[in-house]
Amino acid sequence: MRRQEARSHEKFEGVYWIALEDGARRLSTKNLSPGDTVYGERLVKIGKTEYRIWDAYRSKLAAAILKALNFLPIVPGGKILYLGAASGTTASHVSDIVGEKGVVYCVEFAQRAIRELVDNVCENRPNVYPILADARFPERYRSIVGEVDSIYCDIAQPEQARVLADNADMYLKSGGGAVLAVKSRSIDVTMAPCRIFRQEVETLRKRRFEIRDTVRLEPYDKDHAMVSATFKEK
Fold first, then answer.
1. What is this structure's pTM?
2. What's the pLDDT tens digit per position in 215-230?
3. How many domains does the chain have?
4. In terms of residue numbers, what domain contains 35?
5. Is the distance from CB of 153 to CB of 202 less than 8 angstroms?
6. CB-based burial of residue 50 (10 Å sphere; 0-12 exposed, 13-18 middle, 19+ buried)?
7. 169: number of Cβ within 10 Å
8. 90 φ/ψ angles, rounded to the nearest 5 degrees
9. Pair 92, 29 in one domain
């Protein structure tokens, strides 16, 4: 049996590799709420630090990192606007990354999902703020959300890039970053996914974004891609 070890990810601060006893290497984040799990993930304690194994089959962001995403604008201390947080699987790992000095504003439209987000994530993580709202109407949560460093968008509806861009116009600082999970089947089931990915990328370019990277998420998520970008200075 090998000794369990933790090592910082070679590109992204706040993300780690865990070497398990059997030699397997797993993506992880430091647990901001030690002892608590969010979706049944494995907890690994190394020294005095507890890590949460990050399941790429449950989180598109983990899948993108494993598929060699080159640019991730989510860092310790960052203020993040998370569109489409659902029950909080990925949002909880974003919470781990930004840490106690960071903030994650979680916008979710479905009432059942927001209840699960509150119960499973927000109750134990003071840096996560749940917002019951429709991301297509960013002005409706202007009294809660201020300027943010990054936006993470994972919504299951058409015009995903436009929704991200509309929120960026209102909340994202110039030079800030964005990550868009493109779900091609939520946009058009008749169109080839590669065409949809190009279409969404072009929408972002027209809305002041510089595209930094695009990766497909197979085998973790079929017909999905992750796009990371920087919001250009005005």
1. 0.94
2. 999 999 898 999 999 9
3. 2
4. 5-53
5. no
6. middle
7. 12
8. -70, -35
9. no
Q: What is the pLDDT of residues 12-57, one digit of tens each?
A: 999 999 998 887 899 999 999 999 999 999 999 999 999 999 999 9
**Token representation of residue 211:** 């595209």
Task: Show the 3-state SS of the chain.
Answer: CCCCEEEECCCCCCCEEEECCCCCEEEEEECCCCCCCCCCCCEEEECCEEEEECCCCCCHHHHHHHCCCCCCCCCCCCEEEEECCCCCHHHHHHHHHHCCCCEEEEEECCHHHHHHHHHHHHCCCCCEEEEECCCCCHHHHCCCCCCEEEEEECCCCCCHHHHHHHHHHHHEEEEEEEEEEEEHHHHCCCCCHHHHHHHHHHHHHHCCEEEEEEEECCCCCCCEEEEEEEECCC
Residue 29 sits in a domain whose CATH number is: 3.30.200.20
Place of tokens 């993930």: 41
